[in-house]
Structure formats: C-alpha cells, structure tokens
Amino acid sequence: FVSSDEYKSFLKRLPADRFLNTSVILQYWTADSSLQHRYGQLDASTKQLLGKAQRIVRKLFTLSKRCPKQPKISLPRERPISFWLNRAQSVLYCTEHSAPGTFSEEAHSCTCAFEHLVCQGTVPCLVAEGAACASCAPDNITRCNSCHPGYVLHQGTCRPAVAGSLDHYVNFDTDVPDAEAKYLLQHLDSRMEIHAIYISSDVRLGTWFNPSWRKRMLLTLKSNKNKSNLIHILLGISFQICSTQNSTLEPVPAIYVNPFGGSHSESWFMPVNQQDFPDWERTKLDPSLQCYNWTLLLGSKWKSFFETVHIYLRSRIRSDDPNSNETIFYEPLDPDDRSSNLGYMKINSFRVFGYSMHFDPEGIKDLILQLDYPYTQGSQDSALLMLLEMRDRINRLSPPGQQRLDLFSCLLRHRLKLSTSEVVRIRDSLQMFSSKLPNSSDPELGQLCS
C-alpha cells in the first residue's frame, strides 16, 4: 500500500504551505476516491489474510494438544487509520536528509531513528479553524503572515488583541470606592448628590396632599439638552415625607429607572426588598413630627445607569398587628368623600445620589463610522474591539433580574440618537465579530429599548 501510486499521489497533493493536523489530513484522505479504492483493497486483502492466519492457528492448536509445551503464536494487528494519518505527517515533516522519523502532533516535533540523528524537517505554522493564524508567511512558513479577527501579528506569531483605552469615549475610571461611597450615602452627603429636575402634576414639593390613589413623580436630568457629555450612575435615592398626626397611612413607593432616556416603557422596575436587593431605610427626623427620611442605598453591587427615575407613590393602611403580612392599599371609592380621609402627606424633598462619567457621543459615532469606512487595514478590527469592550462594560451594570438587559443598545438609541435599524446593525456586527474571538460567550440579553 505504501508503494502504491495512489498513496504516493495522495502525499504529493497534501498542501505544504501550512501545518496539517490529523483531522485535516483525514479530510483529504476521505476526499481522495482513488486512494479510498486502493485502501479498500488493502482492507479486504488484510481481512482475507487474517482469516487464513486464524484458521492456521486453530489447526496448530489442535495438533499441539498432546505437546508438553504450547506454541506461542503472534498475529500482526490491523493498522488503524490513525496510523496512516500519522505516517503522512511523518513523511511531510520528518524526512529531512532522507532520514525517517515519527512525528508527534502533541510535541510538534519528530522522533528520529537512533542511527539518523537529524530527521526533523520544517513544520509550518498552524492554520485551521479555531487557530489564531490565518496564513503562513511565504518566505518563512514557520511564521504567521496574517491573523484571524481578535488577534494581532507580532514577530511572526498571533497574539490576542486587546481593546484600546476607552477613556476618550467613556471614562469608567471615575468610580467611587465602596467604603467611601457607603459612608457618604449614609450621611446623604451633598457631594454625592446629582441635581435632577423634579416633575409631577400630582404632587408639589412642600405641599400637603391627599394620598388617595397613585401619585406619579419623576426626577430627570435632561442630559441630551444640559449635560450631553456626561452619563450618570445611580447609587441611592432619598426622599423626605411627612404625614399628619392622625394619619393611619404609610407610603408605598415603586421605583422605575430609565437608563439613558426615551419613554417610560424603556425603564426597569427596581425590585426593592426582593431576594437580596436592599430595602428602604426609614429614619425619623423629629419625635414631635411624623416626618421620615426614606433612603434606598444601592451601593456598588446594585448601581446602574440612570437618566430618569420614575416614582409611583401609593398608600397602605398601617397595621397594628405585627404578625400581619397583609397589605391593604388605601384607594377610596370617592376621593372627594372627606369622611374616608385617613390623613394627609407632604413630600419635602426628593434626591438622587451617584456620580457622573465623561462621555463623548461624537467620538463614539466616529468609532462606529470606522465599521464601514476604516482608516487603515486594522482599524476596523480595532474599532470593533473597542465597541465590544464598551458594550460589555456598560451591560455589566445591567439591573438585577432573571435576564440581563442590553443597556448598550439604549445608549446608542437615546444618547447617540441612532435609528433602530442602525442600532440593530451595530448589535449584529458586534455579535458576529465576538463569535470569531477566542473564548467568546455572548449571553442572550433582554431588549429594554426599542
């Protein structure tokens, strides 16, 4: 079989411009019809010879029953296909100076016969699916000439590409240390306050109101108009609320957070006191007054982006039974019926705490533009890497939930003012590029923004 024209022709047709592992050689092996026919003949003749040998062995054992010593018979084993694949590798890479050797794919080197000390030939660079190298250098096939996406060429080898600094686009380094943030938030330090615009047609600050039905309020930053170069991180919320002395009601706030703007439907609900999410902390301001500071401290664990905080305030009847878990919401059938009035409330202040980060929307748009009009050969991959890093770092601050949310798409949609089709195109481009990177994993994200 080794001396057959089919086998020799097969070896000559194997490409020598890149390294061939046994899996690749097997593909060429199965695609060569003439070689398969010749190998089938070898297989048939081997089985025929093996059957004849087994008959002879049985006859020998029958004749040797009365012999004082039983014969030792060894039959040649059938060579598996892996033997022939490795032999092809050995012919390609271990026949320097006509000296035979055996190639080891694990060690990527040859084992030469004792009398032939130099059989190691030239082993080309590895070009295969999942490998870093895309092609070997024509002048030196042991070195790489070009790399797959996610790698950069350095002195003939491909190294994992690293995204450039994002400081010019989004300055993630303006984080506040946990211990410092916790101390400042507990003291409601004004240095941590982000000044937002209070808007409500239901409740005026500092004015008593009847807490019948649900009241809607919001704190917004209007960043596109006032602070287009900043995005904001929410670390805590605090409001001061008072109730009349005879009131048997207590407030029940529900919070929705809009990360980068848009409609209310593009907000996520804050799961206060669910699982391990923090609960409101209530502090009485004056023993003689029914005034409390309600504070929700998110800290670094639960921090997230925000542009607008929506507050929905309902009231429930305070229960005197400490063992009762039932919540009875106060919603009178007739809001004008004074006899059903259980007290009034007043909100003196609403504050949000956190910090702001530098943000360059025009710079990010320019980065996105390079996806279609790259400056240089590698600038498109560089732009994709930076956008991918930016996407992952922004989505890392996704709010709690069974499924993480795609906040990066919200940023593109509302802070960069891109169309829905453009956002989808960028998202698909990043997913396609990410799938080609080593050790990539793109979890399924929920879409918050349309």
Topology of this protein?
Elements: H1 5-13, H2 22-31, H3 33-63, H4 81-93, E1 101-104, E2 109-112, E3 133-137, E4 140-147, E5 151-154, E6 157-160, H5 178-186, E7 193-194, E8 197-199, E9 208-209, E10 215-220, H6 223-226, E11 230-243, E12 249-258, E13 268-269, E14 281-284, E15 291-297, H7 299-302, E16 304-305, E17 308-317, E18 345-358, H8 361-369, H9 379-395, H10 407-415, H11 420-435
Antiparallel strand pairs: 1-2, 3-4, 5-6, 7-18, 8-10, 9-18, 10-17, 11-15, 11-16, 11-18, 12-13, 12-17, 14-15
Helix pairs in contact: 2-4
Organism: Lepisosteus oculatus (Spotted gar)
InterPro entries: BRINP, BRINP_C, Growth_fac_rcpt_cys_sf
Domain BRINP C-terminal: 4-450
Give descriptors for this structure.
450 residues; alpha+beta; Jelly Rolls; 5-stranded antiparallel β-sheet; 11 helices; 29% helix
Structure description:
It comes from Lepisosteus oculatus (Spotted gar). The chain has 450 residues and is an alpha+beta fold. Helices cover 29% and strands 23% of the residues. It is built from eleven helices and 18 strands. β5 and β6 form a beta hairpin. The longest helix is centred in the N-terminal third of the chain and has 31 residues, at 33-63. It is elongated.
Largest sheet properties? 7 strands, antiparallel
What value does the average pLDDT take? Answer: 84
H and E order: HHHHEEEEEEHEEEEHEEEEEHEEEHHHH
What is the count of β-strands?
18
Please bin the fraction of helical residues: 25-40%
How would you describe the shape? elongated
Number of domains: 4
End-to-end Cα distance, whole Å, is 66 Å
Strand content: 15-25%
CATH uppermost class of the largest domain: Mainly Beta
Helical segment count: 11
CATH architecture of the largest domain: Sandwich
- By oligomeric state, this entry counts as single chain
Write the CATH fold name of the largest domain: Jelly Rolls
Uncertain runs are: none
**Which radius of gyration do the C-alpha atoms yield?**
37 Å
Structural classification: alpha+beta
Pfam family, one: BRINP_C
GO biological process, one term: positive regulation of neuron differentiation
Domain BRINP C-terminal: 4-450
Protein name: Bone morphogenetic protein/retinoic acid inducible neural-specific 2
